[in-house]
Design a protein that fits this description.
The chain has 204 residues and is α+β, with helices and mostly antiparallel strands. 30% of the residues lie in helices and 27% in strands. A seven-stranded antiparallel β-sheet has the order 2-3-4-8-7-6-5, sandwiched between helices. A two-stranded antiparallel ribbon has the order 1-9.
Amino acid sequence: MTGVGPTSEHAPRPAEEPPPTVSPAIERANRLSAANMMRSLLPLVVICLLLVGWQAFRAGPDVGVRTVDPSSTVQFAAARAGYQVPVPTGLDEGYRPTSARTDAGDAREGDAVTLEIGYLTPSEEFAGFVVSDDRGADPVAAVLDGAQARGTVDVGGQRWTRSTTVDGETALSREADGVTVLVTGSAPDEELRTVAESVRPYSG
């Protein structure tokens, strides 16, 4: 007698339901919402771009220019130097000091003292002022060594030697009692003369 076992049957898989249909009205509303959002953002983007452009226009070429107050450096050099230190005085605001250095911190009594001040001029060029009682000091030698003398000029009632440096820049220099004063840089001659003409003995 042959027994008949139970037959295994798989339950039928439910048919996948089609995705719910979205009415054309809802689709249109969604598209309009996205379009409205873009139209709303566009004026904000334009305004932001205009503000950035306006700030850049106002900032102009001075972006990144760091100015310094050279007064403390000048005072320190004058206190340590064995000579009356002359410095540019009364320059208008177009001449912005961007650096000031002195080696007076290492100077002992009787040692030479060198002072350097760098300016950004109204034409956005560099003008450097150097004074030292050491003709061989690096800041002096870097300008005058190898320079070609081009005669003399009268600036503010004083006679300065006009030279062309090895870098092709103009240098105005004068020497008295072992003290060398010079003005040089990429600035035009007129601006270098303005700096030279402003040089006065430091009065503290």
